[in-house]
Amino acid sequence: MKAVVVDRYVENYGELRVSEVAKPKAKDDEILIQVKAAGVNFVDTLYARGLHQNNRRHIKPPFTLGLEFAGLVLSSPTTSPFRPGDGVFGAYAGSYSEYIVLPSSYPVYRVPPSWSYAEAAGIAATLPVSYGALSLPGVLKPGSTVLVHAAAGGLGLAAVQICSALGYRVFGTAGSAAKCRLAGFFGAEACIDYEADPRWWDRVVSLTDGNGVDVVFDSVGLVEQSIKCLAHRGRALVVGFAGRNRENLEKVAMNRVLLKQASLIGYRFGETGRRYPHETTIIWEALLPLIKSGRIKPAVYDREYRDLGSVPRALEHVASRKVWGKAVILIDDDASRQRASL
Ligand SMILES: NC(=O)c1ccc[n+]([C@@H]2O[C@H](COP(=O)([O-])OP(=O)(O)OC[C@H]3O[C@@H](n4cnc5c(N)ncnc54)[C@H](OP(=O)(O)O)[C@@H]3O)[C@@H](O)[C@H]2O)c1
Protein backbone atom coordinates (compact mmCIF):
# COMPACT_ATOMS: atom_id res chain seq x y z
CA MET A 1 0.00 0.00 0.00
CA LYS A 2 0.97 3.65 -0.33
CA ALA A 3 1.88 6.03 2.50
CA VAL A 4 3.71 9.34 2.90
CA VAL A 5 6.64 8.21 5.05
CA VAL A 6 9.10 10.76 6.41
CA ASP A 7 12.48 8.97 6.45
CA ARG A 8 14.29 12.23 7.16
CA TYR A 9 13.07 15.75 7.81
CA VAL A 10 12.72 17.83 4.65
CA GLU A 11 13.44 21.48 3.88
CA ASN A 12 10.90 21.72 1.05
CA TYR A 13 7.61 19.83 0.94
CA GLY A 14 8.45 18.77 -2.64
CA GLU A 15 11.04 16.40 -1.14
CA LEU A 16 8.25 14.32 0.47
CA ARG A 17 7.65 11.00 -1.32
CA VAL A 18 4.83 8.48 -1.49
CA SER A 19 6.35 5.16 -0.40
CA GLU A 20 5.23 1.58 -0.98
CA VAL A 21 4.96 -0.08 2.45
CA ALA A 22 3.43 -3.30 3.81
CA LYS A 23 -0.33 -3.17 4.33
CA PRO A 24 -1.00 -3.44 8.09
CA LYS A 25 -2.73 -6.60 9.37
CA ALA A 26 -5.29 -6.28 12.14
CA LYS A 27 -4.84 -8.48 15.20
CA ASP A 28 -7.89 -9.95 16.98
CA ASP A 29 -8.50 -6.80 19.03
CA GLU A 30 -7.86 -4.29 16.26
CA ILE A 31 -9.87 -2.44 13.59
CA LEU A 32 -8.66 -2.28 9.98
CA ILE A 33 -9.67 0.94 8.22
CA GLN A 34 -9.37 1.94 4.58
CA VAL A 35 -8.54 5.65 4.69
CA LYS A 36 -10.78 7.50 2.25
CA ALA A 37 -9.69 11.04 3.04
CA ALA A 38 -7.17 12.73 5.33
CA GLY A 39 -7.24 16.27 6.76
CA VAL A 40 -4.26 18.57 6.25
CA ASN A 41 -2.94 20.43 9.28
CA PHE A 42 -0.47 23.24 9.92
CA VAL A 43 1.16 20.77 12.31
CA ASP A 44 1.94 18.48 9.32
CA THR A 45 4.06 21.30 7.87
CA LEU A 46 6.05 21.36 11.13
CA TYR A 47 6.32 17.56 11.48
CA ALA A 48 7.63 17.23 7.91
CA ARG A 49 10.44 19.67 8.71
CA GLY A 50 11.11 18.43 12.26
CA LEU A 51 10.09 21.79 13.75
CA HIS A 52 7.32 20.71 16.15
CA GLN A 53 8.01 20.24 19.86
CA ASN A 54 6.74 16.65 19.46
CA ASN A 55 9.66 15.95 17.09
CA ARG A 56 11.95 16.07 20.11
CA ARG A 57 10.22 13.11 21.76
CA HIS A 58 7.09 11.58 20.28
CA ILE A 59 7.47 11.82 16.49
CA LYS A 60 10.83 10.95 14.94
CA PRO A 61 11.77 9.53 11.49
CA PRO A 62 10.79 7.20 10.09
CA PHE A 63 7.11 8.04 10.58
CA THR A 64 4.04 8.37 8.41
CA LEU A 65 2.74 11.91 8.10
CA GLY A 66 -0.90 13.00 8.60
CA LEU A 67 -3.04 13.54 11.69
CA GLU A 68 -6.70 13.12 10.77
CA PHE A 69 -8.69 10.65 8.70
CA ALA A 70 -12.10 9.44 7.66
CA GLY A 71 -12.48 5.95 6.27
CA LEU A 72 -14.30 2.67 5.92
CA VAL A 73 -14.09 -0.08 8.55
CA LEU A 74 -12.93 -3.26 6.74
CA SER A 75 -12.71 -5.56 9.74
CA SER A 76 -13.36 -5.26 13.47
CA PRO A 77 -13.55 -7.52 16.52
CA THR A 78 -17.03 -8.42 17.79
CA THR A 79 -16.35 -6.29 20.89
CA SER A 80 -16.06 -3.14 18.75
CA PRO A 81 -19.11 -0.87 18.33
CA PHE A 82 -18.16 -0.60 14.63
CA ARG A 83 -18.92 -3.18 11.94
CA PRO A 84 -17.28 -3.68 8.56
CA GLY A 85 -18.84 -1.13 6.20
CA ASP A 86 -19.18 1.61 8.82
CA GLY A 87 -17.76 5.06 8.04
CA VAL A 88 -15.60 6.45 10.84
CA PHE A 89 -13.36 9.42 11.47
CA GLY A 90 -10.66 10.15 14.02
CA ALA A 91 -7.29 11.62 14.87
CA TYR A 92 -4.34 9.35 14.12
CA ALA A 93 -0.66 10.18 13.63
CA GLY A 94 0.07 8.45 10.31
CA SER A 95 -3.15 9.11 8.39
CA TYR A 96 -1.48 9.81 4.99
CA SER A 97 -1.77 6.12 4.32
CA GLU A 98 -4.19 3.90 2.37
CA TYR A 99 -4.89 1.64 5.37
CA ILE A 100 -4.49 1.99 9.13
CA VAL A 101 -4.98 -0.39 12.03
CA LEU A 102 -6.21 0.84 15.41
CA PRO A 103 -6.83 -0.87 18.76
CA SER A 104 -10.58 -1.48 19.13
CA SER A 105 -10.54 0.81 22.20
CA TYR A 106 -9.09 3.69 20.14
CA PRO A 107 -11.42 6.75 19.98
CA VAL A 108 -13.04 6.90 16.53
CA TYR A 109 -16.44 8.35 15.68
CA ARG A 110 -19.17 7.54 13.18
CA VAL A 111 -19.25 9.77 10.08
CA PRO A 112 -22.53 11.74 10.32
CA PRO A 113 -24.97 10.43 7.67
CA SER A 114 -25.13 13.72 5.79
CA TRP A 115 -21.34 14.19 5.68
CA SER A 116 -18.94 12.88 3.04
CA TYR A 117 -15.66 11.25 4.06
CA ALA A 118 -13.90 14.41 2.89
CA GLU A 119 -16.02 16.53 5.22
CA ALA A 120 -15.38 14.26 8.20
CA ALA A 121 -11.64 13.97 7.54
CA GLY A 122 -10.67 17.44 8.79
CA ILE A 123 -12.39 17.39 12.16
CA ALA A 124 -10.71 15.18 14.75
CA ALA A 125 -7.38 16.96 15.29
CA THR A 126 -8.95 20.41 14.90
CA LEU A 127 -12.41 20.85 16.40
CA PRO A 128 -11.57 19.29 19.82
CA VAL A 129 -8.48 21.50 20.11
CA SER A 130 -10.54 24.67 19.83
CA TYR A 131 -13.28 23.28 22.07
CA GLY A 132 -10.75 22.07 24.66
CA ALA A 133 -9.19 25.53 24.90
CA LEU A 134 -12.49 27.42 25.01
CA SER A 135 -13.96 25.07 27.62
CA LEU A 136 -11.09 25.41 30.10
CA PRO A 137 -12.48 26.50 33.48
CA GLY A 138 -13.09 30.25 33.73
CA VAL A 139 -12.51 31.08 30.07
CA LEU A 140 -16.08 31.57 28.80
CA LYS A 141 -18.55 33.14 31.21
CA PRO A 142 -22.20 34.00 30.57
CA GLY A 143 -22.30 36.83 28.01
CA SER A 144 -18.59 36.65 27.13
CA THR A 145 -17.44 38.26 23.89
CA VAL A 146 -14.72 36.43 21.96
CA LEU A 147 -12.17 37.51 19.35
CA VAL A 148 -10.82 34.68 17.18
CA HIS A 149 -7.65 35.33 15.19
CA ALA A 150 -7.19 33.59 11.83
CA ALA A 151 -10.94 33.07 11.94
CA ALA A 152 -10.99 31.17 8.63
CA GLY A 153 -8.11 28.83 9.58
CA GLY A 154 -8.53 25.29 10.87
CA LEU A 155 -8.58 26.04 14.60
CA GLY A 156 -9.97 29.55 14.06
CA LEU A 157 -13.03 28.55 12.07
CA ALA A 158 -13.73 25.76 14.56
CA ALA A 159 -13.52 28.30 17.41
CA VAL A 160 -15.89 30.66 15.59
CA GLN A 161 -18.41 27.87 15.08
CA ILE A 162 -18.16 26.65 18.69
CA CYS A 163 -18.67 30.14 20.14
CA SER A 164 -21.55 30.82 17.81
CA ALA A 165 -23.18 27.44 18.50
CA LEU A 166 -22.91 28.05 22.25
CA GLY A 167 -24.51 31.49 21.92
CA TYR A 168 -21.51 33.78 22.47
CA ARG A 169 -20.83 36.96 20.50
CA VAL A 170 -17.80 36.17 18.39
CA PHE A 171 -15.62 38.46 16.26
CA GLY A 172 -12.81 37.44 13.95
CA THR A 173 -9.68 38.61 12.22
CA ALA A 174 -8.37 37.08 9.00
CA GLY A 175 -5.88 37.78 6.23
CA SER A 176 -8.31 38.65 3.42
CA ALA A 177 -11.81 39.92 2.78
CA ALA A 178 -12.78 36.52 1.35
CA LYS A 179 -11.61 34.72 4.51
CA CYS A 180 -13.57 37.26 6.58
CA ARG A 181 -16.73 36.52 4.57
CA LEU A 182 -16.28 32.83 5.35
CA ALA A 183 -15.87 33.54 9.09
CA GLY A 184 -19.07 35.59 8.91
CA PHE A 185 -20.90 32.75 7.16
CA PHE A 186 -19.90 30.40 9.98
CA GLY A 187 -21.03 32.73 12.78
CA ALA A 188 -18.65 35.66 13.31
CA GLU A 189 -20.64 38.83 14.01
CA ALA A 190 -17.89 40.91 12.37
CA CYS A 191 -14.49 40.05 10.94
CA ILE A 192 -11.58 42.43 10.38
CA ASP A 193 -9.08 41.91 7.58
CA TYR A 194 -5.91 42.45 9.64
CA GLU A 195 -3.78 42.75 6.50
CA ALA A 196 -5.86 45.68 5.27
CA ASP A 197 -6.39 47.26 8.72
CA PRO A 198 -3.12 47.33 10.70
CA ARG A 199 -4.87 48.85 13.75
CA TRP A 200 -7.48 46.08 13.90
CA TRP A 201 -7.58 46.28 17.70
CA ASP A 202 -9.19 49.73 17.48
CA ARG A 203 -12.00 48.20 15.42
CA VAL A 204 -12.48 45.49 18.03
CA VAL A 205 -12.73 48.11 20.79
CA SER A 206 -15.35 50.06 18.85
CA LEU A 207 -17.29 46.88 17.96
CA THR A 208 -17.55 46.17 21.70
CA ASP A 209 -18.68 49.70 22.65
CA GLY A 210 -15.27 50.58 24.05
CA ASN A 211 -15.07 47.56 26.38
CA GLY A 212 -12.84 45.20 24.43
CA VAL A 213 -13.44 41.46 24.22
CA ASP A 214 -13.47 39.13 27.22
CA VAL A 215 -11.60 36.33 25.47
CA VAL A 216 -9.03 36.24 22.66
CA PHE A 217 -8.44 32.91 20.88
CA ASP A 218 -4.98 33.17 19.38
CA SER A 219 -3.50 30.55 17.04
CA VAL A 220 -1.26 33.09 15.26
CA GLY A 221 0.99 34.77 17.85
CA LEU A 222 -0.76 38.11 18.42
CA VAL A 223 -1.13 38.25 22.20
CA GLU A 224 0.64 41.55 22.81
CA GLN A 225 -1.46 43.44 20.25
CA SER A 226 -4.59 41.64 21.41
CA ILE A 227 -4.20 42.98 24.94
CA LYS A 228 -4.97 46.40 23.44
CA CYS A 229 -8.51 45.22 22.72
CA LEU A 230 -8.93 42.88 25.69
CA ALA A 231 -11.47 43.83 28.36
CA HIS A 232 -10.23 44.39 31.89
CA ARG A 233 -9.60 40.97 33.47
CA GLY A 234 -9.92 39.40 30.02
CA ARG A 235 -8.41 36.05 29.05
CA ALA A 236 -6.03 35.35 26.15
CA LEU A 237 -6.00 31.74 25.00
CA VAL A 238 -2.62 30.85 23.51
CA VAL A 239 -3.17 27.87 21.20
CA GLY A 240 -0.63 28.33 18.41
CA PHE A 241 1.93 30.43 16.59
CA ALA A 242 1.14 30.04 12.88
CA GLY A 243 2.48 33.53 12.15
CA ARG A 244 5.77 32.94 13.94
CA ASN A 245 8.80 30.70 13.89
CA ARG A 246 11.55 29.79 16.35
CA GLU A 247 13.43 32.99 15.58
CA ASN A 248 10.54 35.40 16.24
CA LEU A 249 8.46 33.70 18.95
CA GLU A 250 6.23 36.23 20.69
CA LYS A 251 7.47 37.96 23.84
CA VAL A 252 4.84 39.89 25.77
CA ALA A 253 5.52 43.00 27.86
CA MET A 254 4.27 41.98 31.31
CA ASN A 255 3.34 45.54 32.31
CA ARG A 256 0.51 45.28 29.77
CA VAL A 257 -0.68 42.04 31.38
CA LEU A 258 -0.59 43.65 34.83
CA LEU A 259 -2.38 46.84 33.77
CA LYS A 260 -5.21 44.89 32.16
CA GLN A 261 -5.18 42.24 34.90
CA ALA A 262 -5.19 39.87 31.99
CA SER A 263 -4.88 36.08 32.16
CA LEU A 264 -2.70 34.32 29.59
CA ILE A 265 -3.78 30.69 29.27
CA GLY A 266 -1.85 28.13 27.23
CA TYR A 267 -3.54 25.02 25.84
CA ARG A 268 -1.99 21.94 24.21
CA PHE A 269 -4.49 19.31 23.12
CA GLY A 270 -2.09 16.39 22.54
CA GLU A 271 -0.44 16.82 25.92
CA THR A 272 -3.87 17.15 27.55
CA GLY A 273 -4.81 13.78 26.04
CA ARG A 274 -1.59 12.18 27.31
CA ARG A 275 -1.86 13.62 30.84
CA TYR A 276 -5.63 13.84 31.36
CA PRO A 277 -7.31 11.43 28.90
CA HIS A 278 -10.69 11.84 30.61
CA GLU A 279 -10.71 15.49 29.44
CA THR A 280 -10.62 14.35 25.81
CA THR A 281 -13.61 12.10 26.47
CA ILE A 282 -15.52 15.03 27.98
CA ILE A 283 -14.67 17.22 24.98
CA TRP A 284 -16.10 14.66 22.53
CA GLU A 285 -19.21 14.13 24.64
CA ALA A 286 -19.89 17.85 24.22
CA LEU A 287 -18.94 18.05 20.54
CA LEU A 288 -20.78 15.06 19.06
CA PRO A 289 -24.27 16.51 19.80
CA LEU A 290 -23.21 19.82 18.21
CA ILE A 291 -22.09 17.92 15.11
CA LYS A 292 -25.19 15.71 14.99
CA SER A 293 -27.55 18.66 15.35
CA GLY A 294 -25.81 20.49 12.49
CA ARG A 295 -24.74 23.39 14.70
CA ILE A 296 -21.14 22.61 13.74
CA LYS A 297 -20.56 22.08 10.04
CA PRO A 298 -17.58 20.92 7.99
CA ALA A 299 -15.71 23.52 5.93
CA VAL A 300 -13.65 21.84 3.22
CA TYR A 301 -11.30 24.05 1.20
CA ASP A 302 -12.44 23.90 -2.41
CA ARG A 303 -9.07 23.17 -4.07
CA GLU A 304 -8.87 19.45 -4.93
CA TYR A 305 -6.01 17.34 -3.55
CA ARG A 306 -6.41 13.96 -5.15
CA ASP A 307 -4.33 11.00 -3.88
CA LEU A 308 -1.30 10.97 -1.59
CA GLY A 309 0.93 12.50 -4.27
CA SER A 310 -0.84 15.82 -3.67
CA VAL A 311 0.32 16.05 -0.01
CA PRO A 312 3.35 18.31 -0.79
CA ARG A 313 1.16 20.74 -2.77
CA ALA A 314 -1.45 20.84 0.01
CA LEU A 315 1.23 21.51 2.67
CA GLU A 316 2.66 24.29 0.51
CA HIS A 317 -0.79 25.87 0.27
CA VAL A 318 -1.32 25.66 4.05
CA ALA A 319 2.08 27.22 4.74
CA SER A 320 1.43 30.06 2.28
CA ARG A 321 -1.99 30.90 3.83
CA LYS A 322 -3.97 30.01 0.69
CA VAL A 323 -6.18 27.53 2.52
CA TRP A 324 -9.36 28.45 4.40
CA GLY A 325 -11.19 25.88 6.53
CA LYS A 326 -9.66 22.45 6.05
CA ALA A 327 -7.71 21.16 3.07
CA VAL A 328 -8.39 17.46 2.59
CA ILE A 329 -6.46 14.79 0.68
CA LEU A 330 -8.86 12.53 -1.26
CA ILE A 331 -7.20 9.14 -0.99
CA ASP A 332 -10.08 7.19 -2.48
CA ASP A 333 -12.28 8.32 -5.38
CA ASP A 334 -15.61 8.28 -3.56
CA ALA A 335 -14.28 10.34 -0.63
CA SER A 336 -15.97 13.50 -1.76
CA ARG A 337 -19.64 14.04 -2.51
CA GLN A 338 -19.94 17.72 -1.82
CA ARG A 339 -17.89 20.85 -1.10
CA ALA A 340 -18.30 24.08 0.81
CA SER A 341 -17.35 27.04 -1.34
CA LEU A 342 -16.21 30.56 -0.58
N1 LIG B 1 -2.46 23.98 20.98
C1 LIG B 1 -2.69 22.87 20.30
O1 LIG B 1 -2.96 21.81 20.84
C2 LIG B 1 -2.63 22.94 18.81
C3 LIG B 1 -3.22 21.96 18.02
C4 LIG B 1 -3.20 22.10 16.63
C5 LIG B 1 -2.54 23.18 16.07
N2 LIG B 1 -1.92 24.08 16.87
C6 LIG B 1 -1.22 25.24 16.31
O2 LIG B 1 -2.18 26.24 16.00
C7 LIG B 1 -1.74 27.02 14.90
C8 LIG B 1 -2.81 27.04 13.83
O3 LIG B 1 -3.10 25.73 13.40
P1 LIG B 1 -4.26 25.50 12.32
O4 LIG B 1 -4.39 24.05 12.15
O5 LIG B 1 -5.44 26.31 12.64
O6 LIG B 1 -3.55 26.12 11.03
P2 LIG B 1 -4.20 26.68 9.67
O7 LIG B 1 -5.48 26.00 9.40
O8 LIG B 1 -3.11 26.63 8.67
O9 LIG B 1 -4.54 28.18 10.03
C9 LIG B 1 -3.53 29.04 10.43
C10 LIG B 1 -3.91 30.44 10.00
O10 LIG B 1 -2.96 31.33 10.58
C11 LIG B 1 -2.87 32.47 9.76
N3 LIG B 1 -1.46 32.83 9.58
C12 LIG B 1 -0.92 34.01 9.91
N4 LIG B 1 0.37 34.04 9.62
C13 LIG B 1 0.67 32.86 9.06
C14 LIG B 1 1.87 32.31 8.50
N5 LIG B 1 3.04 32.99 8.51
N6 LIG B 1 1.83 31.06 8.00
C15 LIG B 1 0.68 30.36 8.02
N7 LIG B 1 -0.48 30.84 8.51
C16 LIG B 1 -0.49 32.08 9.04
C17 LIG B 1 -3.53 32.14 8.43
O11 LIG B 1 -4.77 32.85 8.39
P3 LIG B 1 -4.85 34.34 7.78
O12 LIG B 1 -4.36 34.26 6.37
O13 LIG B 1 -6.28 34.66 7.91
O14 LIG B 1 -3.96 35.18 8.65
C18 LIG B 1 -3.85 30.65 8.51
O15 LIG B 1 -5.06 30.34 7.88
C19 LIG B 1 -0.42 26.41 14.46
O16 LIG B 1 0.64 27.12 15.06
C20 LIG B 1 -0.48 24.99 15.02
O17 LIG B 1 0.80 24.45 15.25
C21 LIG B 1 -1.97 23.99 18.23
UniProtKB/TrEMBL annotation:
Residues 14-329 form the Enoyl reductase (ER) domain. InterPro entries: ADH-like_C, ADH-like_N, ER, GroES-like_sf, NAD(P)-bd_dom_sf, Zn-ADH-like_protein. SUPFAM superfamilies: GroES-like, NAD(P)-binding Rossmann-fold domains. Coiled coil: none annotated. It comes from the Eukaryota. One of its GO terms (molecular function) is oxidoreductase activity. GO terms for cellular component: mitochondrion. This is Quinone oxidoreductase. PANTHER family: QUINONE OXIDOREDUCTASE-LIKE PROTEIN 2, SHORT-CHAIN DEHYDROGENASE/REDUCTASE. Pfam families: ADH_N, ADH_zinc_N.
